[in-house]
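anyone else get weird line breaks when pasting these?? whatever heres mine. first is seq + tokens for prot A
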Amino acid sequence: MIAVSLISAIQCVIFLFLTKGITYFGKDTDNSKQVASAAQSPKWRWPSDMHKYSGGKSRMKDIVVILLAFMQRLTFDKKSDYPLVALCAATNSISSVLLFLIACKYFGLPIALVVYLFFIFSAWPWQNALMGFHISTAQMFFLLTVLCIQMPWYLASGAVFGLMQFSSASSRKFNVFVVAAIAYSQVRFFAFPVMNGLSGLASWIFLAAALICLTANAFIKTKGRFFKIMSLLIKSTAYSSLYCAVYILCFGLRALISSHVPFVLGFACAVLLLLLPNVKKNLASFFEYWDLASSLGHFRLYRTYFAKTGKPISDDMRGAGWIWVYRYYGRISLFTFGSSFLGVLAVMFKAFNGGNALYGLGELLLIVLLSASPVIWGEVTRGPQIGRSYYPGFYGQLLVIAYSLAKIGVSFGHPRIVVPLILVLTVHAVWNYSIFFGDLYPSRMAAAWLAKKIKALNVKQIYTYDTPYNDSLLGVVKPEDLKEVKINYIKSIDEVLSGPGEEDSAVVVPGTSSKSLVMESHEEAFTDRDFRSDPALNKLIDSRRIRDAALACFKTFGTSKNWINESEVPSYRYLILKEISDEDRWRGHAWILSVAKLRKVAC
């Protein structure tokens, strides 16, 4: 335990050191609004007052903003994205320790160690931290919920579960895991079927309530804020009633009361604290945001583009479905995804060669369905197909790995199993570190590194373009980092070549590809227009002669094969349509160009 905690802490400290000076990833991001709201925390009378300062961008992220306010005090920084990135790094490290403890209790020390190593050697959690994605904090509260259930501290687990719901819009994809943890903690009460006495009566009452609510919801209009909220409330009541009926059927009324009453009480107290003082208004806003993801996808902006290219899309287009999930998991979590698949095959093989194949396969099917529940949830609710939204599925992969190792019978004394595991974990670590340090990290730090390089080169005057392509580069550099540098906006490099060309001047060229994470909502992207308004620059880029004039070159979001999957339409065009090429990624580079070298290249 001490060694695990130490490794996680060291990893966190290294990450915090590497990301010092990180900028926002674009102008007017949700992150910047949440940072501004957290900076006003001394003015809050209630936690819900944060929404007055965030323009609605802290809905379903209340706990993140509260913790962010604390992190701002620790880092003495109330303006930049760094405290949010630091918070995600800290919750990642805490989550890795919690994951180890939970796996130890369920599967034993050897398997817990394997699962822990799969987690800390994965790039995906740290990709989320680099961007300050709120799912990093939600995962910590999810794991705390499960750990409390294991104790079993149902009151505390309910409270933490409530905090999880207010940490990220994607946290609801953890809900089925929590339900499974509660059911597993009550397995001693399993007495199917239980349909007599009070248990039977209660089961029928809940079942009737579920049917009544589902019937009523069928007659509710779906247009308008009021009707949408009412529909969500009625459906929530219906599914909760159906859940209670099934739970009583399996475990009995006593088990339901002993576990769920304190759980619901803790949940209600935590949620009420976050909704006060205007419970009705804040609850309505919560459910409105809950339903927002399925109605505000970016595909609607690209209808004209897809129609022109002969690939028309429907009005409710949101992605490619399960094929996108398969391809994305194969890119971001290749070895955990592959290992979970091999684990399923190994358990199936053992079941067929064992004495009770039907029971073994039935149990395996339940585990596979449980592990896939975040993906199923995402597909059923038609949420956006972006990486962070499907991150809870990573825990499903880890669950299958742990379960399959337990069924195979892993221990430190089985070299036939341990040696291949060490090999897989080694390759897994090398592959993920290459993704992190070769793609995710440098492209996220482009703006920060650009500012440092300009200082190092002693540049006093910059020529650049006034374009949305610059919003995620010079547009997010901290003003104090370039306070002694004069910025001139040009329309063509020819303007620089015909000028005096001082030695302390340079040209900054942002990434010029429209197929990038940060360009998804700009007109240039959904009309498929790269930045080509300067013919002189086009010649330099297309001929690759821009390298001869370069003082520095930077990877950006436009060069990345991984960040692109945080945008639903570019990810669809990349993973499904194969429309994004190496040439697009080449155009995604940012440059600092020497005026003197430009003149030589132009000649």
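and prot B, same format (seq, then tokens)
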Amino acid sequence: MVAPPVLSRGHRQLVLAVICLALVLVVAGATMLNVALPDLARSLHATQSQQQWIVDGYAVALAALLLPAGVLGDRYGRRATLLAGIVIFGVTAAASAFTTSPAALIGWRILSGAGAALIMPGTLSTITSVFPAEEKARAVAVWSGFAGAGGVLGLVVSGAMLQQFWWGSIFVVTAALAAVAAAATIAVVPATSDPDSPPLDIPGSVLSVLAIGGLVLGVTEGPVRGWLSPLTLTGLIGGAVALVAFVAGGLRVRQPLLDPRLFRERRFAAGTVSIFLQFLAMMGFFFIFLQYLELVRGYGTLKAALAVIPLAIGMMPASIAAAPLAGRYGGRNVGVAGLALSAAGFVWLSQLTVASSYWPVLFGMIIAGAGLGLGMTPATNAIVESLPIAKQGLASAVNDTSRELGAAFGIAIVGSAFTAAYRTHIGPSLHQLPAPVASAARQAPAAAIDVAGRLGPNGHALVHQTQTAFMSGQRQALLIAAVALAIGVVFLLLPGSRPGWVPVPRRPRLWRYLAALSSTIALPDVKRPRE
């Protein structure tokens, strides 16, 4: 194994800045098109399904390739894979800006997701490899803050660009920032790797791509196409079968891509579950709340993006504060407090009405953001500190995969709950409308308000009924997000039966592994000694 490089404090801070820039490119890449889809659809004549895949193609490719990309970074060099990912990301962004067909844009977005998969594990694993132990927790905290707030930054920049330029300008700016990140990576980021690590587990890599890609595809397409549609079922069933095969294979081979026994380590498993649940709640919130700001409060795209900045304002300082707080009070206690606080914020936001002012919105977002910031840092630290320096790329990939799976499940679960409640409450208001109008209004709030605008004076009542039904759907959706976080609180408080890694026989039966896994897990309440 190559020893981690020894850098000056100033050099390490430059590394952190470059890494955070690359990280924001990836995170913003998942959200930046949400406000641009209407303009993009009109320009390219994209169907609803094509619009969905312009967004989802990126997310599926990113999630599916994270684990193999993390292992490649460990073996062949984290800076090399990071730089390769930035170049691919930048080139595909530049090509996307000037594409003239939806199919071509979908293809570029999928390739961009592949580049993002090379970038993301390299960001966190580089930090954990070059920062000394006494600085590592704070550096990870800064990374966590940007990882959470990057989506908001993407929305704001996209909204600002669309106010002045065409939809392709978003990709032009992205490509320019990628060029800056590539140059800075070459100049600042040191090379770290473990050339003695085992070769890439090809069968495990294929199964992980099929498992994660299939599950993300299924839960993403389910709310749009229906949970019984062929594509949704293919993704869910195929992903589940591949996941079982991946776990079974990982228990049998000598050097698997990801050893399932790692999840018997209390901190590793607890951090993974915590990250998953936090991103389930947060991305579900974004999916619903941006619609609330535009359809109920009447904000434009830029104003709506600016209106969610308080979530980042709460998240960033809380993420940084979480590291010293965890050292003083224990990672589990801070993680539990963070999840509980963010759950309280979502419960508060669920009580909003059509007539609510922005002040309770502001308060709820700051509370929810602060809770997420407190929760993410100890969870991420728990994952990366559970594995040795030589496997930081893998640890980072597990952390990132948990985020992407949580985001996909959050949009699917929270979005489906919202849609079900909205349709239940809007239904009685549509009986007097013509069947085509009623059908459109029942499908989505945006369609209902669009229809109401064509009904003249009679449309005012439909707008009010739509907004009231929207708030009912939002209430149920945000309460489900809060319940997910509450489940995380209970999970972290469960006593762990194992203090740490315990070797097990090389070829245990699958049922024994699952039984052992069920006996976990809580973040150990370990406090660092005061200096």
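btw re prot B: The CA atoms of residues 399 and 442 lie 38 Å apart. The chain has 19 helices and no strands.
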